[in-house]
Structure formats: structure tokens, C-alpha cells
UniProtKB/TrEMBL annotation:
<comment type="similarity">
    <text>Belongs to the NAD(P)-dependent epimerase/dehydratase family. GDP-mannose 4,6-dehydratase subfamily.</text>
</comment>
<keyword id="KW-0521">NADP</keyword>
<dbReference type="GO" id="GO:0070401">
    <property type="term" value="F:NADP+ binding"/>
</dbReference>
<feature type="domain" description="NAD(P)-binding">
    <location>
        <begin position="8"/>
        <end position="323"/>
    </location>
</feature>
<dbReference type="Pfam" id="PF16363">
    <property type="entry name" value="GDP_Man_Dehyd"/>
</dbReference>
<dbReference type="InterPro" id="IPR036291">
    <property type="entry name" value="NAD(P)-bd_dom_sf"/>
</dbReference>
<dbReference type="InterPro" id="IPR016040">
    <property type="entry name" value="NAD(P)-bd_dom"/>
</dbReference>
<dbReference type="InterPro" id="IPR006368">
    <property type="entry name" value="GDP_Man_deHydtase"/>
</dbReference>
<comment type="function">
    <text>Catalyzes the conversion of GDP-D-mannose to GDP-4-dehydro-6-deoxy-D-mannose.</text>
</comment>
<dbReference type="GO" id="GO:0008446">
    <property type="term" value="F:GDP-mannose 4,6-dehydratase activity"/>
</dbReference>
<keyword id="KW-0456">Lyase</keyword>
<dbReference type="GO" id="GO:0042351">
    <property type="term" value="P:'de novo' GDP-L-fucose biosynthetic process"/>
</dbReference>
<protein>
    <recommendedName>
        <fullName>GDP-mannose 4,6-dehydratase</fullName>
        <ecNumber>4.2.1.47</ecNumber>
    </recommendedName>
</protein>
Amino acid sequence: MTQRKRALITGITGQDGSYLSEFLLEQGYEVHGIIRRTSTFNTDRIDHMYEDPHKEGVRLFLHYGDLTDGTTLRRILEEVQPVEIYNLGAQSHVRVSFDSPEYTVDSVGVGTLRLLEAIRDYQQRTGIQVRFYQAGSSEMYGLVQAVPQSESTPFYPRSPYACAKVYAHWQTINYRESYNMFACNGILFNHESPRRGETFVTRKITMAVARIAAGKQKKLYMGNLDSKRDWGYAKDYVRAMWLMLQKDAPDDYVIATGETHTVREFLERAFGYVNLNWEDYVEFDQRYLRPAEVDLLIGDSTKARQQLGWEPSVTFEGLVQLMVQADLQALGITSPNATGTLKPSDFATVRQELGAL
Ligand code: NDP
Ligand code: GDR
């Protein structure tokens, strides 16, 4: 019998970690994830996959660790003996990285270095080849140099988070070239889903739309509405991570839809889905502005499309709809038909049930 492929994921409790785990389990992998000890549970996104490890045939295992703790990373590597490692763990909020720059750089930048060093020693000692994926970001492009942004566009990072990602990107290339490691950088543009963290702009908007429609919220406070992002669907993007590690040779790839929209357009479409006018609800609050902003992101993923056979499956309109629908459903509101928009009158019953009328 051939042994199952074993993958290790840092950041397994995050949006991408949860989708990637599902995907790898479907592919027959044994999946190991690193989680952080917290005083309240942080495993909501993966609870549906988790089973008692004492049971026969279990293929998802969790280990306590942290990217700021190199000793534990080494110990987990020895224990798990993975053939693929996906480094998704990060303090991933750009605005927060201005408040907490040292910690952000420690987890995102030095954390990647710790993991690469652990892999280098592990490979040298055991002779086992490990394939490594680094979760790079379109934030690395920062101040616009040229559009659309491709693998050859220069970086100009605009936040502690983005600076740390650039460092991790170049360390990954450096380890590939210095130690012949199979190490790939994905340069992923924004990708969203109903599992997106609640303080990122798309999810903040779709949750507010559902709550406003249900009469549970009156206003939505936002920052800069002019910035443009290339938004895709997270499930499509984790497939690209895996595809990179299945190639004969390691390389770096941009993953993006090639379309860009302003935050304002996202608002228009999300509120429009429930037939509300966003301007009646949205207020400005400067605490959501960043000291330096990234104005325009639009990715050119030709290389990934040609060499990995990757394509996005969800349009901007489809993404907004599926996120609003999921947040409405979470409040017990279901759309009368899957494609149509909802009228405010459709929410009357729900409002009544919630005691909001
Ligand atoms: P999330 O913020 O949803 O998840 C981040 C994960 O990292 C969580 O599991 C979190 O654990 C974990 N984590 C945080 N700090 C540490 C640490 N010190 N040590 C170990 N783990 C830690 O991010 P996404 O899933 O959206 O993104 C995944 C990766 O891809 C990140 O590296 C992000 O920077 C990058 N990226 C994301 C893009 C996007 O649009 N989503 C685009 C491009 C890159 P906990 O649950 O305990 O907080
Ligand atoms: P981003 O995502 O910074 O692109 O990083 P985010 O959703 O936080 O912001 C997108 C844009 O919206 C503007 N904005 C607001 N943002 C938030 N969070 N809250 C607000 O109230 C608000 N109002 C306006 C922002 O200024 C920004 O221009 C995400 C993260 O997932 C990173 O980890 C990842 O690397 C990049 O995407 C690609």
C-alpha cells in the first residue's frame, strides 16, 4: 500500500487554511495543522472537519505552535514528517499591522524564515524532500508602479505587513536558490468568502447588509471607499496553492481575476442585493484609514493560467451575492430565489421575529 501524502499547514484556523484543509482531505491527504492556544476557541472554521484523533481513519490532526516559536516548529516538523508545507499563518490585517508592527513582522517575516530554516535542517538530516508554499500577497506591490501587476512588476510595500511579506518572498527565493529547496511563492490578490474574517472590508460590508436588512443595525462606519481591489473567491485560490506544489519545478505565480472594483462598487452591489441604497447607511470614520494606502490592485495571472491550468470560477457579482446570501442565511433569512434580489418587504417576518419592528 502506498503511504498517504502528508501536508502541514500553518494558519489552518484562518479562511484559507480551512478551505485548503477541505481540499487536501478531498485529495486523500493526511492533514496536520498548527493552531495557537487561545483562551476562547479559535477553531470555528475547521470544527466541521475535526474528529476525535483516537478514531480509526482520522486524517486531520492539530498541533499547538506559533510562527514566533522556532523550537516548536522544528519539533512539529520532526513529528509530522510532511512532504508539503503551506505557510499561511500571519497577522494578516494591514490596518492592524500599523498598530502592531513588531509582532506583524515577527510572525509574517521572521516566522517564514524560522520555518524555512527548520525545513532546511530537516531535509538535510532526513534526506526527505519537502515542498514549501509561501502565502505572498498583492499588498507587496503597494504604490502603483505598473498595471496589471504580474510576477515581474517591482514591489513597493506600503505597510509593516507588506514589508514583512516582501521579506518572506525573497527569503523563499533565496532558500530555493541557495539550498535547492522546492519553495514557491504565490502572489495572491484579495480573496474572500463567507469565512472571511469579519474586519476585512468585504465581510464587514456583507455582515452589515444582512444585519441592516434584519433591522439589527442602523449604520456602517467605513474608511476609504476609493481604493480598488481585484477580489476573487477563496476556494478557487487554495486550489492554486496546491497546483504550484504539483509542478516539476518550483516557481512564483500571481493568482488574480484580472478585474478591479472600488470599495464603493462593492457597497453598491451588496446593498443593492437587498434593494437598499448604501448611501442611506454608510458613514465615514477616519479610524479605518491607513497611514499609507494601496490605491489600485489588478492582477495579471496569465502565467498561472498557462502553466498551472488555473482559472477563477466566481465573478465579482457572484462573489458579492454568495457572501451576502450566506450572511442573510446566518440570520435565518433565505432568498426567495437563488439569483433574484430581495425586497425589503421580504424581511418583514424576520424583523418581527427579531423584535425589531
Ligand atoms: P486569516 O487572517 O483568516 O488567517 C490567519 C491564520 O494565521 C489564522 O489561522 C491565525 O490563527 C494564524 N496566525 C496568526 N498569527 C500566527 C502566529 N504568530 N503563528 C501561527 N499562526 C498564526 O488569513 P487568510 O486565511 O485570509 O490568509 C492566509 C494567508 O494568506 C495569510 O498569510 C495572509 O497574509 C495571506 N494572504 C491572504 C490574502 C487574502 O485575500 N485572504 C491575499 C494574499 C495573501 P488564529 O485563528 O489563532 O488567529
Ligand atoms: P486589504 O484588505 O488591506 O486589501 O488586505 P481589507 O479588506 O482590510 O481592505 C481593503 C480596502 O478597503 C478599504 N476600507 C476598509 N478596510 C477595512 N478593513 N475596514 C473598513 O472599514 C474599510 N473601509 C475602507 C481599505 O482601506 C483597503 O483599501 C487583505 C488582507 O487579507 C491581506 O492579508 C492580504 O494580503 C491582502 O488582502 C491581499
